[in-house]
Amino acid sequence: MSAIRHALTVTRDSDFAAWYQEVISEAEMAEESGVRGCMVIRPWGYGIWERIQALMDARIKAAGVENCYFPLFIPLSYFAKEAEHVEGFAKEMAVVTHHRLIGDGKGGLVPDPEAKLEEPLIVRPTSETVIGAAMARWIQSWRDLPLLTNQWANVVRWEMRTRMFLRTSEFLWQEGHTAHADRADALEETLRALEMYRSFSEESLAMPVIAGEKPENERFPGAVATYSIEAMMQDGKALQAGTSHYLGTGFAEAAGIQYQDREGKQALCHTTSWGVSTRLIGGVIMTHGDDDGLRVPPAIAPQQVVILPMLRDDDGDAALLAYCEELRRALVAQFALGEPVRVLLDKRPGKATGKRWGWVKKGVPLILEIGGRDAASGQVSVLRRDRLWREDGKPNFIAQARDLFLAQATSEIENIQSSLHAEATSRRDANIVRGLVSFDALAEHFAESARYPGWVELGWAKPTGAELEDVVTRLKALKLTIRNTPMGGEGVTGNCLFTGKPATERIYVARAY
RNA sequence: CGGGGAGUAGCGCAGCCUGGUAGCGCAUCUGCUUUGGGAGCAGAGGGUCGGAGGUUCGAAUCCUCUCUCCCCGACCA
């Protein structure tokens, strides 16, 4: 059978959750911090986040949205103004109540009772309320609209159960907040952000997603409509990878965001908010990772090429390093995916073979191992991370003339990006089941394929209120959730799986993170 | 927050029941030999046993409290 000795000890098949954690730890992306639910993001993980930030920020700015920054602390009274919103977040908010410590007489420190805050401060779980207060000051006239803002920040949600990158107590994100004159304009912005997330996921993360509207039971607290992009992980579960909300006038009413229209009348603004977070990194791991670690799509790889000189600790090293340095210079002068190629010449002491597995686990798209013979004969040995193994179970190094490699480097990098996307897309499509005609058939489907259940696409009559609650409860018994209604998902035939009424739209049903 | 498991060297673990000088493997460091595909041999360094109290002549080990992590639930824009 396979003689392959994988770089990880746990495979995806044997224990997906343990595999996920081993990737993060072995790729040196993040580690425990000692604070409940909070992680230290290490250089490789943070480097990926910085790439995501750079590419997403460019898209945000291209849409005319301006960055700004609001405080970490939000007065409790701001939250109290929007009832649904505060109710949705009340159970997971960190609260600051004191501003000074005092000795407890036993060598420890306790909050000083004398230093209790008049009004508790919330550590932001999201910033609608504080940004809304600013919008109320900034907007006077219809000429001030639309107001398009975004901030890159950390937020805190005191989750009961946390998982690295997927659900941490503190996480990094961008939150866009916009105010508009009317519903149509706000809804257009909501959907523009959704499309921005969809195309970013597909193009930059090589992660196929389905963009659509969440059912009403999954709406953001206080929102009129919530949209999401949903990605399928390799265990068949769904990951909500980004959300965009049309908030109606509820937040405007609570914060007093109004403007004088062309007729001179006061009117409430329609607001939106939208965000993606460090959760995207978890999605990338579970979309592209394999039994040898991470595979980073080149667009978001901190380094796209790593050059490993096979140092011998002798007189030949100088010439070898010179050859590698020249190779590095030739590569960084090239462009791939619209940017200069990112190359690291790894000169650290140690054997190239040992260092190689570290980069394999980190998922660098291309690894070049260069020995004295390569240097002498003008060759390179190329290892593509997405085609790691030969059939005989050995690393799939391909010896190439240096000049030929340089001529093809750009297309090679771009090909890895598209290959990862194609692989993930065909896997997702192969794991979406259609045509189930009854709830029993749905239950049977997920009972039979408990390990890789994938998603089910079906038609429903979009029940609301108590009728929807009933559907949610029945699905919950199967550990299933409604993910979203894909954009353009109307016009289905047949009957609703839950109510028996004529179906009006398509939905995706899946187990979810 | 409920149920279960765990915390001992950088990583993975044994020791705990039955208290008596802190162990193993990998990794690291040094030396020698090797070395074009995840090297071998020899030697060495590294730990207030998650934290705080308690019992005891003596605590990794027994008791109490607490923190953190993992799994299953509940919760989850």
Summarize the structure.
The chain is of the alpha+beta class. It has 14 helices and 28 strands. The chain is 34% helix and 26% strand.
Secondary structure elements and their pairing?
Layout (H helix, E strand, L loop, with lengths): L15 H11 L3 E3 L6 E3 L1 H20 L3 E2 L5 E3 H5 L2 H7 L5 E4 L2 E3 L5 E3 L4 E8 L4 H11 L8 E10 L13 E11 L2 H21 L5 E5 L11 E8 L5 E9 L3 H6 L2 E3 L5 E3 L1 E8 L1 H10 L16 E5 L7 H16 L2 E2 L2 E2 L2 E3 L6 H11 L3 E5 L1 H6 L1 E6 L13 E4 H29 L1 E3 L4 H10 L6 E6 L4 H13 L3 E2 L2 E2 L18 E6 L3
Parallel strand pairs: 3-9, 17-20, 17-21, 24-25
Antiparallel strand pairs: 1-2, 4-8, 5-8, 6-7, 9-10, 10-16, 11-12, 11-27, 12-13, 13-16, 14-15, 18-19, 21-22, 22-23, 25-28, 26-28
Helix pairs in contact: 2-6
The structure holds one RNA strand of 77 nucleotides.
Provide keyphrases for this structure.
513 residues, alpha+beta, BirA Bifunctional Protein, domain 2, Rossmann fold, Translation Initiation Factor IF3, 3 domains, 8-stranded mixed β-sheet, 14 helices, 34% helix, globular, RNA-binding
